Amino acid sequence: MNGATNRKSANYPSILEAPHPDPDDMLDPFLRRFPISTFGICLGLCSQAGLWQALATSRSTRFLHVPLCINFIVWCFALALTALMFVVYSLKIIFHFDAVRREFRDGVRVNFFFAPWIACLLLFISLPPSIEMNLHEALWYVLMAPILGLGIKVYGQWMSRGRRRLSKLANPLNHLAIVGNFVGAMLGASMGLREGPIFFFAVGLAHYVVVFVTLYQRLETNEALPRELNPGFFLFLTPPSVASLAWEKIDGHFGYGSKIAFFVAAFLYVCLAVRINFFRGFRFSLAWWSYTYPMTAAASASIRYSMAVTNPVTRALSVVACAISVTISALLLVNTAYKIAFMPRKLFPNDCVIAISKKRKTTLSRGNPDDRGGGSVAIDIRGL
User: Fold this and answer.
1) Per the CATH hierarchy, to which homologous superfamily does domain 29-371 belong?
2) pTM for the full model?
3) In this predicted model, what pLDDT tens digit does every residue of 192-244 receive, in sequence order?
4) Which residue ranges make up each domain of the chain?
5) Over the stretch 45-95, which tens digit does the pLDDT of each residue have?
6) CB neighbours of residue 133 within 10 Å
7) Is the separation of the CB atoms in 340 and 315 below 8 Å?
8) How far is 174 from 111, CA to CA, in rounded Å?
9) How far is CA 145 from CA 134, 151, 175, in A?
10) Alpha-carbon distance 235 to 40, whole Å?
């Protein structure tokens, strides 16, 4: 019994065991406290730009009379915010590379390294018609190169590394490492490419099945995610929702393949929506932005489905999904802006991942033999 407990804690150490910085201690520099998971905000806003474009141009939602200028405004705001995030995190890479390296080695945080490139793909997918241009094929290859490189690294660790095997690290945030393949396939197919989008779609589909099955049959030796990370469970919606849109671009119409993926996403949406208590009772953090992109992707897929199957029910479904997505995104944006303006220390506290590494280095310097040989993966709540 004790052996099973030890194995359980070795896989996912509780955040309560992590060295929380004392409130009276001096905060680390802002760049050091700026986590890669902040790019989750970019995912939510960039996908919102695409949603507003779909609302304004789709036949099934034309009765709403949504002006295209909203797409332009949201897109410009998302572009500016994404550019700002790139600049800030680039400065972190330059001045605090050790902190970036520790983030990349964290089993949960590494999934967010896909987010900046997914955000860029979404910006080009949702490009407003007023500034739409013919995108060169080379742009797609440039944007997909980081996703391919990260995929080779992360997927390889899932298969071969002992402490980083998927069976030990499985959590809903792993979907971020999958969805970039589908987003890239969608953009590539819309640019007229063929083989490249199919390649990434196939890679994404294969690994999505593996992640999906692993998450459904998580072993008892796996530690449950902290309650504060429960919003990440909505990432279950993202791969099937985006896959339905990507296959529509590849196949040319919203056929059976797209419908199957959409129905999976719709079923998962209902399964999560009815568990309201599962997503209540914890304080606001950047982890709440995990709601936005999955909901927006599902809403966009519902619009495409309502165009393929036109009736009052599908139209109502798409309108409700879009209303929920827009409302949640707006509330989170207002709340985040308020926290940044008046309580920035609570939104960007000292990074637990870095604090754990600091404590481990201090312990090693004192000659504690029990901590040699590397540590296990830490789940950082406050940085997410």
Assistant:
1) Voltage-dependent anion channel (1.50.10.150)
2) 0.85
3) 999 999 999 999 999 999 999 998 887 555 556 677 778 889 999 999 999 99
4) 29-371
5) 999 999 999 999 999 999 999 999 999 999 999 999 999 999 999 999 999
6) 7
7) no
8) 6
9) 20, 10, 19
10) 11
